[in-house]
Records
---
Amino acid sequence: MNIPVKKWYEAVQTRYSQQKYMTKEIKPFTLKSLEKKFEELNETYPEARVEIIEESVKDILPALKGKYGNFTDSPAFIAFIINENGKHRWSKMGYIGEAAILEATSHGLGSCWIGGRYIPERSKINIDLKRGERLVAVSPIGYSSENYNLTRHFISKLFPHRDRLDVKELCPDGYDPDWPGWVKNAIKIGSYAPSRLNRQPWRFYYGDGKLVVDCKSEPSAYKRLECGIALLHAEIGALDGGVNGRIEFGGLGLASFIKEI
Ligand SMILES: Cc1cc2nc3c(=O)[nH]c(=O)nc-3n(C[C@H](O)[C@H](O)[C@H](O)COP(=O)(O)O)c2cc1C
């Protein structure tokens, strides 16, 4: 996957989950540019894809099982779709899906992951799912009206990611302050990832040029997805820290970033 490091590094810092949107349509140029990037993202893995649906998120929520909170109408939403039989499909969905979210963020759009079991019979919207595909999450996209909530805006500017676990807690085998800068940056940026109820299920392990992302406990499907989100964040942190490398799913943990020698 082609990662625009500077742009997504910035997006990691400014993104936060938003429930309230203006009804204003997304600019046609922005939509076109997002669609183009999503096409590119969809070529990464056959197990996971993203699609922009130009309908309000409120029209799809009744078809997702569970409780979500109080969302307003949005001009569009992202559909996160997995291939039911694919290997590492949940972590790949998190990885590709967060790339879509960060790209939307970099265009000034608000977003919020919402996961839940999709019941097509309850849906007002026809999602074009191919055989073996399943909609596992959505995110509204649009111009946030929360930006006008000054308190929240200032607090988030002053204390970005104030509500995340300390990096030391995220490294069960220990966090070594003498680790290379790119490793520490990767873990810090990894810790900013979004997760359901902010549960932060990811844990990091480092050795021999390899940063492993694993789940704190027995991974449920959605925890795997969240670890995939943290994996992308960690990779952005590593690249920003000045190294190149590749992603490997499976192996020691759920997935790893392996530094190029
Ligand atoms: C898989 C997943 C599901 C989520 N589901 C919801 C949801 O149903 N309703 C909601 O308001 N936020 C939801 N969130 C957003 C989280 O609550 C949010 O990411 C977390 O509290 C951290 O806040 P932040 O994203 O602003 O950094 C979800 C996030 C993820 C990754």
---
Amino acid sequence: MWKPDRQSQKPLYEQIADHLEQKISYGEFPPGSLLPSERKLAEQLGVNRSTVILAFAELRSMGIIESRSGSGTRVSQYKWGATPRHTPNWKRYAEGGSFLPNVPFLRRIREALSQTPSMIDFASGELSGDLSPMNEIAMLMDEHHYTSYLGYANPQGYIPLRQALVAYLDQYRGIQTTESSILITSGSQQSLFLITQCLLSPGDAVAIEDPSYCYSLPMFQSAGLRLFRLPVDRDGVRPEDIRTLYKKHRIKMIFTNPNYQNPTGTFLTDERRNKLLEIASELGLPIVEDDPYSLTDYEGEFCPPLKSVDPHGNIIYIGSFSKIVASGLRIGWMVAPHAIVERLADARQQMDFGLSVIPQQVAAQFLISSHFEPQLNRLRMQLRYKRDLLIEALQKELPGLIQYNIPQGGIHMWCKLVPEVNDAKLLEEGIKKGVVFVPGSVYGSDSGYVRFTFARAKEEDIGPGIAAFAEALRELIK
Ligand SMILES: Cc1ncc(COP(=O)(O)O)c(C=O)c1O
């Protein structure tokens, strides 16, 4: 007797729906025949009735079965009978296309967060509401009259925002540029998407950090890229590894997040920065510097990005409002040679005609307002406070069970678990106890690591969240 596989990444209801669909297509349940009741099937398969209800709903949405109240669930006549009426197999379409779905752990986390609003969230890489300047943004929106015209926006980005960014990049990031070298994107994510889709071709080899945020993005595989790893240690990547990858695989581009890296929190040392730039210019290799975190340095130190010392013009620089203001504004930017910006703006026009002008106007006003600098100062203090709350909780709840380096900026804490536990079981156990986090393997590393993001959870939830995680871990090692 077939039973769903509880260890599989595929949800139980999907396994059951697939199994029934197969039986129907093999004729075991002919058109019009009655299927077992939800209760009976749940008993037979050893699952909750709600799981069978979901499986039936899935088959119903594809037109494979029909339910009528009082007369049970039957195999559809139309779908499988001789009549020419057929419902498209939407599930197959949904699985088609060349753009891959999110990694299963991330889909599971999203599902758990949407099912249980009280879940303590150490998984989402964003700021909690109180870290974003909501009142200041509301005030600006009241004070300013936004948009006199709402036609398609300039696909390269709203000019006053690009102008504000030229001043911002100079003052805060030590980058001199002009508005024609800036492309406004829907977060840094879109910059990564445009680069992988438009500047690289299927089969191209690229180097990404290991572990790295990029591993959590199937978009790299969707673009057909071959990914090679640059291991990250306490001081970031080792630049000499680039030379090796270039010789072996002819890598075409390097993706790096050198400042308070996601997920490890590491900051690339000065010596390695210089070496990285030297090797990239020697090999003529472009570097994509993904830099959403450098302004979150808790001491307020000036952390110059690679782009501020890029004598040979090897760097495409990506920035974002997401980790310093609010991720929901979806404001990001890229600084690149004009030819690249023009090419990507053209692609952008084909994809979505550019970002809505309204958030761009809000972002431009906020950047030039007197609120921006206080926002950064407040954010840094609060992030450091939350980091300390997390460390306190880890020390209290998990002595001897966890190892970590203390980040000096950013929003993530990368932890190695001392006991060996299965990533998937730990996440499921965590969800049962009301807490989500990201298993390290999502970022390409071996299992046995966990990323806790401390910016999203409320201050008062950090201690209880880690206590719940500790309970989940102890459950698996007892
Ligand atoms: C390193 C890095 N790059 C890019 C992104 C995408 O951010 P957004 O598109 O919100 O700017 C993230 C988000 O977590 C990130 O950590």
---
Amino acid sequence: MTIGFIGFGNMGKVLSESLRKFSDTQTEIIISDKDYSKIEEAKKAGFKTDNNKEVFLKSDIVFLCIKPKDLISSLEEIKQMIKEADEKSKNIIKKKTIVSILAGIRISKIIDALGIEIPIIRIMPNTPTLVGEGAFGIYFSENVEETPKNFVMNFLNKVGKTVVVENEDLMDTITGLSGSGPAYIFMVIQALADGGVRMGLSRKDALILSAQTVLGSAKMVLENIGKLHPEELKDMVMSPGGTTAEGIKALEENRIRFAFIKAVEEATKKSKELSK
Ligand SMILES: NC(=O)c1ccc[n+]([C@@H]2O[C@H](COP(=O)([O-])OP(=O)(O)OC[C@H]3O[C@@H](n4cnc5c(N)ncnc54)[C@H](OP(=O)(O)O)[C@@H]3O)[C@@H](O)[C@H]2O)c1
């Protein structure tokens, strides 16, 4: 199977490198990007490269890893080629699958930009994919075949956790939660470490302790889904009249839960705006 990537920026790079790491030798990867320095970078990393049109034509599955604002321009040449293709070529093209990682861009918009109805998988990845701990929201258009579906699911489950949704609107919520989420959590880690530094720890020690605390806590939540609620895990730490109770009071005074709920809400709204 040949897998193409249009766009070799932050996410294109993360996904193509992860795919290479986890796929068998029969999987060929081919990359295109508008930016010549990115093409050079891809070549240096050992990838085959070509232009957008050739990547599309040569691939069975094409990952679209450009910014939402570049959707039309990145598919322009491909749209023109499809317009001029005969019926036989159009039927071959219809067997390809596009995997879009674009925030806020609905399937109908991609179909419009291509000028042909082909199967599309929307995924919302996040940057921890780089360390094999991605979180992926996934939505399949109705016409996606089992082979590309299984390929994408197998790949993503190797580099993180997947959640498939039946309603495309929920992709905006996933963008606001796990797509943008690493940025929120990096702030949390940094803020916890700042607290540690303020109370006398070295920066390095404070960062190790805060990051490991987030990692370990996340692992406990994931291992206890359907068994222990996060509130119960919190109660295991918070003893009566103890230190944690004082910390929790300070967090509640500063409306920490409201701040995170609002962050997801605002990011979701922005993703919905992008789709207009
Ligand atoms: N970054 C994240 O954490 C994250 C998380 C989830 C989803 N996403 C989604 O991932 C997508 C890509 O984000 P990113 O951070 O990887 O962006 P990025 O670093 O800007 O990468 C996009 C790449 O595509 C290139 N490009 C632009 N127009 C093109 C065209 N017509 N043909 C071929 N290549 C073109 C860009 O080149 P130029 O730089 O020259 O424009 C750039 O190298 C976005 O749609 C975003 O919504 C990102």
---
Amino acid sequence: MRQQFQTLEEIHRVALTKLDDVIVDYLEGGAGDETTIRRNRSAFEEWEFQPRVMSGLSSPPTATTFLGLPLSIPVLTAPFGSDTMFHEDGQKAVARANQAMGTVSMVPEAGSFSYEQVAHAAPAAARIAQLHPAGSDENFLRLLARISAAGYSAVCVTVDSPTGGWRERNRRNALEFDSSIIGGNYNPADRDQMEAALGQLFTHVDNVWSWHKLSSLLDDFELPWIAKGITTVADARAAVDAGASAIIVSNHGGRQLDDVPASLPALVEIRSELGPGVDIALDSGIRRGSDVIKAVALGATAVVLGRSAVYGLTADGQRGVERTLELLTEEMITVLTLLGRGGITDLNHEAMRRVPR
Ligand SMILES: Cc1cc2nc3c(=O)[nH]c(=O)nc-3n(C[C@H](O)[C@H](O)[C@H](O)COP(=O)(O)O)c2cc1C
């Protein structure tokens, strides 16, 4: 039997060997000079732990909640579209892995399978549906009704993508997406609706939504919603004022606007602005268990795995995502034990300091 992966770096390496170069560019690349991609990672090196040795504390618990949803570890998987480009089972495999591991999927609008198909693949798991505030009001409301009927617990609205980022690798490769890859939520008969809602990710648009429009459409919706793609204090405040129950501090993994704040320093400022009462998730740059611990200690309720989940899916489908979550769990328990803190919900700023210059 094949030896299981022992590190996340190994999963990443194997995943890249399975993809064509053009897809590797799409996955690994980002906007502009990819400065934000690099800063997302280097920001984690700017913080160091403050361990307390001889704590007498063992078996630190890792469970928590996000928006009231139980999580075995403070991790969700990101809404990444075009998922069958990476593995034929796409988000169905991701949902099954989350179901097995006690974590939560965010299921993309631009996915290869519909919200209903992914829900059906992992019926016992809690799940969140992601939507773009784009296209017609009628299309948006129809998707909301489907999300609710399919048993989703919340809606994640991606607010940082009124158009696609300036991604030069994709331009160079003339990358195009077939509707069979991104159109899982749309019937062929709804092609116009799909073009209006998802087409703006690839071309420029004249229909950029406002907070006011979004909040008026979500006003009567029964599920809580999350604003994904916040990098500034002003936008965090605007999202909460518009009715968001939680936010995701995210720069889309450096794929949208380059030269925006890295996720970790943005989190610190935004948590300080919003105080302890609002659930805040962080994505963009999470690559190992100690990153999760740092983010939680600095104020995140949970983190969201983008590329790390894609690597798991590509490397070995459902099993690859499960192994990714297992390795994160094991590393987190190791780090928490060495840090001498009781458990994930006991973490705070006191466990961290900025690396002295
Ligand atoms: C291949 C790929 C496709 C993505 N598609 C979407 C999408 O359809 N909607 C969305 O809100 N975010 C999308 N994202 C962004 C992720 O949800 C997440 O914000 C980002 O990957 C986090 O950064 P990380 O990759 O450094 O973890 C995508 C990311 C990748 C890598």
